[in-house]
TrEMBL record:
Pathway: Cofactor biosynthesis; thiamine diphosphate biosynthesis. It catalyses: 4-amino-5-aminomethyl-2-methylpyrimidine + H2O = 4-amino-5-hydroxymethyl-2-methylpyrimidine + NH4(+); thiamine + H2O = 5-(2-hydroxyethyl)-4-methylthiazole + 4-amino-5-hydroxymethyl-2-methylpyrimidine + H(+). InterPro entries: Haem_Oase-like_multi-hlx, Thiaminase-2/PQQC, Thiaminase_II, Thiamine_Salvage_TenA. This is Aminopyrimidine aminohydrolase. Keywords: Hydrolase, Thiamine biosynthesis. Belongs to the TenA family. The lineage of its organism: Bacteria, Bacillati, Actinomycetota, Actinomycetes, Pseudonocardiales. Residues 14-218 form the Thiaminase-2/PQQC domain. It comes from Amycolatopsis cihanbeyliensis. CDD domains: TenA_C-like. Transmembrane segments: none annotated. PANTHER family: BIFUNCTIONAL TH2 PROTEIN (PTHR43198), SI:CH1073-67J19.1-RELATED (PTHR43198:SF2).
């Protein structure tokens, strides 16, 4: 029988494909992505990861199955420590200090996605919350591992190789599988209305993943910036 996760991926397959073929990821894959767009992405992502880590901590606190607690608590740590280390490497490479980072305003899309996860953590049930968190793992591994496969050994020249390798990594794949198992169990334990809400949260978060890359590619400003 098809599990919830397979159904959710099928439901969003056009979106997932669009993330992979977005110019941000195509240019990241061949190394031609302009540095200012990647720097903008990193500045946004550093802020996103704090919210993501907080939402994961809520999932750890609320899971009905204590066996899942170490996964969500560990993933929160990974987001704010390990992924942060990846960012630090790039900040040094680009000579980006705190002053330069502070000068990049949090984008509308970054604020919307982060707020969405935090609102889901506070106001939704546990099944809906982990369904919203799953694309943050799965979409990144899908993009990272697809790019690595396409590279056919041409990788190390690419300035974005560390990013690609992080998300294509086997440890990251393991996190995707653990999160999918937790989501499938929560879906199986819930009723049809719960599964519909889970599908909605999974889809919305997948949309935000696409929008996050798109907003970095456009160096997304606040349309109201000139009115301040
Ligand atoms: C926007 C976003 N989504 C997911 C990931 C992977 N944790 C990330 N670093 N940034």
């Amino acid at each position: 029988m098809t599990g919830f996760c397979d159904r959710a991926w099928q439901h969003t397959v056009k979106l997932q494909q669009a993330s992979l073929t977005h110019p941000f990821n195509e240019e990241l894959a061949n190394g031609s992505l302009p540095a200012d767009r990647f720097q903008f992405y990193l500045a946004q992502d550093a802020r996103y990861l704090v919210g993501f880590g907080r939402a994961l901590s809520v999932a750890a606190a609320r899971t009905p199955d204590p066996a899942d607690l170490p996964f969500f608590a560990g993933a929160a740590r990974e987001a704010v420590v390990v992924e942060r280390e990846l960012h630090e490497g790039y900040f040094q490479r680009f000579g980006l200090g705190q002053t330069e980072l502070d000068a990049i305003e949090t984008s509308p899309t970054c604020l919307a996605y982060t707020s969405y996860l935090l609102a889901t953590a506070q106001t939704d049930g546990y099944p809906e919350l982990i369904a919203a968190l799953l694309p943050c793992f799965w979409v990144y591994h899908y993009v990272g591992s697809s790019i690595l496969r396409q590279q056919e050994g041409n990788g190390p020249e690419n300035p974005y190789q560390a990013w690609i390798d992080t998300y294509a990594d086997e440890d990251f794949a393991q996190s995707v599988d653990t999160c999918k198992e937790a989501v499938d169990r929560a879906a199986a334990a819930g009723d049809e209305a719960t599964r519909e809400r889970m599908l909605d949260r999974f889809t919305r978060a997948s949309e935000y993943e696409w929008m996050f890359w798109d907003s970095a590619y456009r160096l997304e400003p606040w349309p109201t910036a000139g009115l301040r």
